[in-house]
Design brief:
Growth Hormone, Chain: A; globular; about 0% strand; transmembrane helix; about 75% helix; mainly alpha; MFS_trans_sf
């Protein structure tokens, strides 16, 4: 399928469309971008702390880190189409169980555990594996388009959820959101990953397809792997963790409710722009340098949001910068893994790094909630996040030039 950028998109547009829909209505988009909407409702109705509510995301982090590499092997053995087509409806159905919450924390966490396990086959590991195998010249742009789905969902789901809550209550809103991956994403992924592209979707060693890069064992011992791991831990905490808390962060800045809703929706728009812009930039420039610029922008955003109060325009700048930074996170990771570690064991290496990433992304919101419960402000933790981002911006430069490898072919 590989060729010029135009030829790649002409031959692979179904893969891109299916991957976009999968990331739009898969994991982490569904649970990650909706918990902030329902958290104040759970706190008021059940008397739960924000740390308790966001603790559900910690279960997602543990599941992705521990069980995620196993699902990566399923992708290689069964193919992305099979794994994603099963996982997406299971994710939606397990998410719907949150509508049965009755004040029992144990029941609430059981729902999150089901979401975590069922959604592991509908993460960026699946969709980026397909895109990285099918695209070369415009790999960054293709990844940016596919992974912009999460930003589109963040933009659309908040006003949609608020409307559904006003019409039918929060339980109805959860049921409708949970139905989206079942009735929309699953059929589109099943269709888009089928047909003549199957050899790219079911990338198995037995096919004899050419692979570049290191075996998983060697990759895990490499300098590049550990540099990526060290960079993405602070990046996940400092960029992804504030997003589910963004409504409450804006509320602590003394902004009116109407402005909070408008500003929160900007995150999704900026994230989509970040995905596309980042994808274009890594195709044109050295990816670590692009990452340095993006992480520095995130640090500026955290410093702005750490103030006691800000104007609407200043808050909008901070939200846009944060959204742009969050927009490039997964596609930058996918691109760097493919370039520095290669495609030979991509599913395993990326799944492991993705698991490390979500530790910060999913545990972080609970940490933010805990800090706010104890101090009544997010200022201190946001300032710490700014320092982490500056450190990551400097460290990513040590990856050095892209390695040049000889293609290795499986027998």
């Amino acid at each position: 399928m590989r060729g010029t950028g135009v030829e790649e998109f002409r031959d692979g547009w179904r893969l891109v469309l299916a991957g976009l829909c999968g990331s739009l209505l898969g994991m982490p988009a569904i649970p990650f971008y909706t918990i902030g909407v329902f958290a104040p409702i759970f706190a008021e109705e059940f008397g739960w702390s924000f740390a308790t509510i966001f603790g559900g995301l910690s279960l997602l982090a543990g599941s992705v880190l521990i069980v995620g590499p196993f699902f990566a092997t399923l992708i290689d053995r069964l193919g992305a189409r099979t794994v994603a087509s099963i996982s997406l409806p299971c994710l939606g159905l397990s998410y719907m169980t949150l509508a049965a919450s009755n004040g029992s924390v144990a029941q609430y966490y059981l729902s999150w555990l089901a979401i975590a396990i069922c959604g592991l086959g509908a993460t960026p590991v699946v969709f980026t594996r397909v895109i990285n195998s099918a695209f070369a010249e415009r790999r960054g742009l293709a990844l940016g388009i596919v992974l912009s789905g999460a930003g589109l969902f963040a933009f659309a789901v908040k006003p949609l959820a608020q409307l559904l809550i006003e019409i039918g209550g929060w339980r109805v809103a959860i049921l409708v959101v949970g139905a989206l991956p079942v009735f929309i994403a699953c059929p589109l992924v099943f269709w888009g990953f089928a047909g003549s592209q199957s050899k790219d979707v079911h990338v198995r060693p037995a096919t004899g397809q050419d692979f570049e890069g290191m075996m998983a064992g060697r990759a895990f011992l490499s300098r590049s792997f550990w540099l990526l791991a060290i960079v993405f831990i602070p990046m996940s905490l400092a960029v992804a963790a504030p997003l589910p808390n963004i409504e409450n962060i804006l509320r602590s800045l003394r902004l009116p409710p109407g402005d909070i809703v408008r500003l929160a929706s900007l995150v999704g728009i900026a994230a989509v722009a970040g995905r596309l812009l980042g994808g274009l930039l890594v195709d044109l420039f050295w990816a670590p340098a692009v990452g340095t610029v993006i992480l520095t922008m995130g640090a500026v955003s955290c410093l702005i949001l750490s103030q006691d109060s800000v104007s609407f325009s200043t808050a909008a700048i901070a939200i846009v910068l944060l959204g742009l930074t969050s927009g490039i996170e997964f596609d930058l990771m996918a691109y760097l893994v493919a370039r520095y570690l290669g495609m030979r064991s991509y599913a395993t290496t990326y799944a492991t790094l993705y698991g490390i990433f979500v530790v910060g992304a999913f545990v972080g919101p609970s940490l933010f909630g805990y800090v706010f419960d104890r101090t009544g402000t997010y200022a201190g933790i946001l300032q710490a996040c700014a320092l982490l981002l500056v450190g990551g911006a400097l460290l990513i430069l040590f990856l050095g030039p892209y390695p040049v490898r000889k293609t290795q072919t499986f027998p």
